[in-house]
Amino acid sequence: MTHSDAPYSATTFAVDPIGRIESDYPDKFGIPRQPGLAKAARATLVMLPPYDDPLTIRGLDAFSHLWVTFIFHRSPSRWTPLIRPPRLGGNTRVGVFASRSTHRPNRLGLSLVELVAVDTSQGVRLQIQGHDLVNGTPVVDIKPHLPWADTPDSNQAGYAEEPPDTYPVRFAPQAERFLDSRRDGNSLRELVVQVLAQDPRPAYRKGAEQRTYGVRLRDVDVRFQARLTEAGAMLLYVTELVAGSS
């Protein structure tokens, strides 16, 4: 039986991944909560058989951005009707369908990403950036973004009318030396700055503190603290960068 011959059911649908993500984000912690917030984040969408036929993406390279539908495969299948959005400090509850929580009934996600390059030399590999996808994410559909159809003339964004606050990021001398020693040092620096500027700590952790946190980007453990400047403003300070296995 082919996919097109599968019987229709009004209650259940089988969804097969069409591809998987190879990402700058090995772990969930630290991934920006929305796509586009860390434009330096790179990934490859590797199409899986039988969808890795170059015919399936003919004409796609004419578009600058894609909608990627995917599975939150690292989120639990259990869900609740009310959740606590980080934008509301992790205390106020809203309905799950009034949020972008990863804890959803069908664990489906939707992200707008930039299409950088298309490689059909061996199957199909799509280079994307500005994403929010953890390594290994199963992709179930892609569609080209149409600005004239996908961007309304006017809109309301509820409790998230404004972009999230961002903070300056500084590096300890040893972290600077680590970046200087790497071939990808410039792009890695850009990624670290864009990720930490969002303050990836849990929403209930506010202000400066002595605790050291760690986030993994590419093959590097990024260790950082939230500190205060002499003027009393908060910044994220990279205390150490440690190379590990990719």
From TrEMBL:
Example GO biological process: methylation
CDD domains: UPF0066
GO MF term list: tRNA (L-threonylcarbamoyladenosine(37)-C2) methyltransferase activity
SUPFAM superfamilies xrefs: YaeB-like (SSF118196)
Highest taxon listed in the record's lineage: Bacteria
S-adenosyl-L-methionine listed as a keyword: yes
Domain TsaA-like: 15-154
UniProt KW keywords: Methyltransferase, S-adenosyl-L-methionine, Transferase
Keyword flag Transferase: yes
A Pfam family this chain is assigned to: TrmO_C
UniProt family annotation: Belongs to the tRNA methyltransferase O family.
Designated name of the protein: tRNA-Thr(GGU) m(6)t(6)A37 methyltransferase TsaA
Origin species: Aidingimonas halophila
